[in-house]
Automatic annotation (TrEMBL), chain A:
Origin species: Brevibacterium sediminis
Pfam families with a match to the protein in the record: ABC_tran
Record-given protein name: ABC transporter ATP-binding protein
Superkingdom to which the source organism belongs: Bacteria
Record keywords: ATP-binding, Nucleotide-binding, Transport
Matches recorded under SUPFAM superfamilies: P-loop containing nucleoside triphosphate hydrolases
Domain (ABC transporter) ranges: 3-229, 242-468
Record-linked PROSITE patterns: ABC_TRANSPORTER_1, ABC_TRANSPORTER_2
Molecular function in Gene Ontology: ATP binding
TrEMBL record, chain B:
Annotated Pfam families: CbiQ
Signal peptide start-end: none
Protein's cellular compartments: Membrane
Name used for this protein in its record: Energy-coupling factor transporter transmembrane protein EcfT
Amino acid sequence: MTVSITDAWFTYRGEDTAALSGITFDVVSGTMTAVLGPLGSGTSTLCRLFAGQLVSRGALTGTIDRNGTVALLGDDPEAQLSGMTSHVGDESQLACRLYGHDPADAHRRARNLLELLGIGDLWNRRLDTLSGGQRQLVAVARILAPGPDLLVLDQPAQSLDPQMRVRLVTVLQEFCDRGGAVLITGHQTDELTRICEEVRFLDAGRLQTATPTVRSVGIWDSRPNDDATLSTMLRSQADPLLTVRDLTVDRGSSRILDGLDLDLRPGELTSVTGANGAGKSTLLRALLGLLDRSASVTGTITVSRLGEMIRLDTLPAHARSAHLGWVGQDAGLQLSAATVARELLHAAPLPPHRRRDRKRVRDHRLAAADSVLAEADLTEVADDHPFDLDVARRKDIVIASALMTETTVLLLDEPTIGRDLAAMTRLNAIIESFLNSGGAVLATTHDQRWANEFAHRRLRLIDGRARS
Amino acid sequence: MSHASSDMHAAVDAAEAHRPKRRLHPATELIILACSLLLVFGIPSPIVPVIILTGTVVTVTVSPAVRLREWAMTVGLLCLPTLVVLIVVQGLFYPGTDVYVLWQVGPARLSVEGLSIAVQIWLRVSALIGLCAMFGLGADSARLFDGLRRLRLPSAVAYMCASAIGLIPMIGARTRHIIEARQARGWATDSWRVRIRLLPGIVTGLVTAILLTVDQRHDVLESSGLNSNATATALQDHTDGTGQSLLRILTPLVSIGLIVASVTGSLPLPGAAQLIGGA
């Protein structure tokens, strides 16, 4: 037995209610176990309990027996790398070296794991050039390389494409075959939770004794549903809001996007899927003009507004933002205000006005912010600090800030990451409301089910080209 | 092993070959950095910072670890405003009375004494910035951590110093992200007027982000074995040997010897005023 927890209770410092209540749980060597629950149910706290990271954060009671080492991969995609190293090779060896492994052994283990995870060619790459999924795999390699006894993974598949998930499944199964134990937590069922010997459910900090259905406990099922076809969707025949022709992005000697054509029509959600590092985020950033000088971008980007065709590719990024509302992959990087309401109030510059009209303009902005807060279901958390909220809520705030600009096209980078059923319903409601008002949405995702069920058009990025 | 796999290994190995193999151990680099600064501030002659600056420029030019453009931008951004301030404050408004005036207009007078102090201070500050930028831009936290531990600093102190240097690129990247986010909402951030207007929000966001990141990074390192009782090996591979060990001992000795010689007058280097020629 690797870790045994008996009647554990935990309350965060300054909180009245317990985050975990009466947890009794054994994780046995050679097995994979999943604990699923909605956002706020305590899945991340449970991970920290197993990893021994709760003692300094609040009051902990109960018995916890750990026989061996525990490695934890946290849920926040923005906080999975150590910040100590600059290159993939160094980062993936880091834990081995901190545990005192011989350098040659650390090198061999890290190299082997990167190969197994299918990212061996990234060894010399700088960490700041990786995609979200590649970063997550490097973090997995780092904590797995020293050979811990228990691997605790909080939402490990959230940024990974289906092929990468399958590779990770293989690596974890091999790890269990060698006697390791794996605990996976999250708010979604996916390829990883499907292979677990046991799946348990957490609700309001308590492990459920009965076996409920996935939907009844608020879990989003992200496994592909092939029954949903595009033919059931109503396609728009209207003229495109955004037309992209022959979009090509080169970075150094490598071509990221190769002559991509794209039409976004009003009332339509278009999903973009593709392997990790295929260029999905690059596509959205290229449309908005946010790529750095090392990238060379060619092609035409045109928006239609009130019957007028406007070329965007000749405009700077801030001018394009009047038409395109971009929501990046890491929502935390787009937030800087002290409250949710202030984030929206100061999201965009006020329109040009005379000094005597300032009060009226500000009142108008206040009313617009209130309206968007309500639309994104953020009114209740309007006075909270954005970083006190979960990843899904943070993303909602950034989407809401894009809605403050009265844009007609939304560009969403991985909007489904870290969402439970309720958060997915919230996202779909925001998108539906935007589409109903005549807007168009382009969203990158690894969630095949969401793409199948909700997208009106699906594109797949392969070798820099979009395939339907 | 499959053909594809071996091809990939070959490609990776070829790429690895481009990484600098003959680079000094970070501990040696730290000793050289410290001794250079000691010489710059210990010997009262502008010749020393000029030699050190020249050496730094040559090193940055030939070193694959530091990008010349990035180094020059950093040094220029910090040193040019310093030069302007020093010339105005010391060069034009030197408070001494017994001075050799080169040029005068109204209350401003360009004196040899004021100019020599300005030049001396500026060269010293520039050498300090140039050296630190070269080391900082060419090293990540792990490299500094290894260097400090090789110099027998306690792991906790080495970790704190290494984390601090790791914050510099993080602050730069975070600032870029915040500005980018504002650009994406319609702010014309190319204009300095707009940037200054957004500054309070940028700083607030930056401080929050730094506090969170420091906490998160510590959690990540803790779960990766930072506080394990094992004797950690070096976090990266470095070249070291008897030659470098000797260099680490001799460099401080030679530096102290030069300073002593300069103080006692055995090393007669000209001062800034002598070089300018008025005094």
